[in-house]
Amino acid sequence: MSGCDQPGLLPVEAALERLLAMADAAPINQTESVTLEQADGRVLAEGLISSLDLPPWANSAMDGYALRLADWQGEPLPVSQRILAGTLPSALEPGTCARIFTGAPLPAGADVVEMQENVQLGDDQRVSFSQGMRFGQNVRAQGQETKVGDCVLPVGTRLGPIELGLAASLGADRLVVYRRARVAVLSTGDELIEPGQVLGPGQIYNSNRRLLCAWLQRLGCEVIDAGILADDLQLTRDALAALDDVDLILSTGGVSVGEADFLGAALREEGELALWKLAIKPGKPLTFGAFRGVPVLGLPGNPASTLVTFGLLARPYLLRRMGASKVEPLGFPMPAGFVWSHAGHRREYVRARIENGRVVMHPNQSSGVLRSASWAEGLAEILEGKTLAEGDSLRFIPMSEILG
Ligand SMILES: Nc1nc2c(c(=O)[nH]1)N[C@H]1C(S)=C(S)[C@@H](COP(=O)(O)OP(=O)(O)OC[C@H]3O[C@@H](n4cnc5c(N)ncnc54)[C@H](O)[C@@H]3O)O[C@H]1N2
Ligand code: MOO
Fold first, then answer.
1. Distance between CA 177 and CA 35 in Å, rounded?
2. 74 contacts: CB under 8 Å, gap ≥ 6
3. pLDDT at 4 over 50
4. E runs forming strands in 96-180
5. Is the ipTM of this structure higher than 0.95?
6. What tens digit of pLDDT does each residue of 289-315 get?
7. Which of 26, 71, 186, 262 has the least C-beta neighbours within 10 A?
8. Is residue 364 within 8 Å of residue 372, measured between CB atoms?
9. Where is the MoaB/Mog domain (predicted)?
10. Which domains, ranges and CATH numbers included, belong to the chain?
11. What are phi and psi of 212, to 5 degrees?
């Protein structure tokens, strides 16, 4: 342990490893066949194997003229056919060229396409090719992208617009995906009321509920909005018992050392509860447990802590349960545009932006503040025990890497 480690704080990697191990132990195995329209954001449960070559036949990459290179000896060539995309050409007559358009099938016998800008059309409609031509130029060979039998998308791929376009290009109209994870979102806290109501003394609006519900939907989960947990043990038990068909109960708030922790009490009674203290800021307290066999993940209630722990821990956990192979966000090294002089015990995820090629941080990094997260383009990772001078390298994780 280095001098900067705080005894008892669980490193972020260790917490993620534990969560992923728990996800691996409780995979959502059920699959369903969905149309491409329904497949966005889902995880592939059966690899997509190509049943055709792509392109299925050689075709032209340009609007121009197709010919056999050997036929061009300096004498203009007559045009023997006109080939539009979607038509079937006849074999190229020797000593001629064919008018051809982008995407149209190459006639048998042709081996090059010259773009129309590079040819001269004589008064007799014969074509002269003045530029030097290279064998195979502007020809897209059959199967150059994909061959019959290729595994184009492996099991575990998260489907997005590109994958759906790719599946469509192979003629697939349905894909087999894992069932969506059913996630119940619970908020705890007597101070919470919902937007639209009049704020009373000591009350705040529930922001975590909307943040998490919207985020979970983006991740391809089915969201069960379980509202605000009542401040009463029996009502808490009843609320949890009603969520017996979900894959995860995700709660926020009440995970630190507060006194009225009915969620914790209910879990201790009828399940299990592990209280973690993570070496992460924001987001130190996190709980993982179960109620009557249903996993429960308790995130800290401070909105920025909810954001960071959901993005870096709960999101990979849920994606893994839904079978995704890539679950961790990409980050890339960037020079710091600020000084970090106090080495901390916890790994900090700073709400930051990139300006003039450097990472700049928002002045308000309070765990209670969401506005700086909305300003931010990403999270800048400052490792525990580290100080930074301007220009030192840090890892920058774009928000887009965790939000979808
Ligand atoms: N004595 C200690 N106090 C605290 C510790 C500690 O170690 N010892 N840890 C602090 C840290 S770090 C965090 S993070 C928070 C975690 O708090 P809880 O998860 O127990 O959450 P609450 O106390 O219920 O709420 C914290 C904060 O967030 C607001 N909140 C809660 N839920 C929502 C919601 N759905 N929407 C908007 N805002 C919400 C709540 O009003 C509080 O202001 O504990 C520290 N304390
Ligand atoms: O971990 Mo807490 O989120 O620092 O305030």
1. 10
2. none
3. no
4. 97-100, 112-115, 119-121, 127-129, 139-140, 151-153, 174-178
5. yes
6. 999 999 999 999 999 999 999 999 999
7. 26
8. yes
9. 184-320
10. 2-30+179-321 (3.40.980.10), 34-53+145-178 (3.90.105.10), 59-140 (2.170.190.11), 332-403 (2.40.340.10)
11. -75, -40
d(Cα 132, Cα 396) in Å, to the nearest integer? 48
Q: Which residues, listed in sequence order, are joined to residue 81 by a DSSP beta bridge?
A: 98
Cβ 206 under 6 angstroms from ligand 1: yes
Residue 207 Cβ < 6 Å to ligand 1: yes
CA–centroid distance, residue 300 to ligand 1 (Å): 6
Q: How far is CA 135 from CA 110, 180, 232, 392, in A?
A: 10, 50, 79, 51
Do residues 336 and 358 make contact, with C-beta atoms less than 8 angstroms apart?
yes
**Torsions phi, psi of 55, nearest 5?**
-65, 155
Our mutation pick for probing the ligand 1 site, out of 186, 192, 256, 346, counting the most ligand atoms within 8 A of Cβ, is 256
Q: Which two tokens stand for residue 198?
A: 């009049």
Residue 346 CB–ligand 2 contact under 6 Å: no
The pairing of beta strand 280-281 with beta strand 347-355: parallel
3-state secondary structure of 19: helix
Residues 6+ apart with CB under 8 A from 265: 233, 236
What CA–CA distances, in Å, run from 24 to 68, 101, 230, 372, 379? 57, 51, 32, 34, 27
Report the distance separating Cα 125 and Cα 287, nearest Å: 79
Residue 154: per-residue pLDDT: 98
Query: Would you state the structure tokens that stand for residue 44, as one six-digit string?
Result: 């592939």
Give the tokens for residue 371: 């506005």
Q: Is the pTM value of this prediction over 0.90?
A: yes
Instruction: Say how many residues make up the chain.
Output: 404
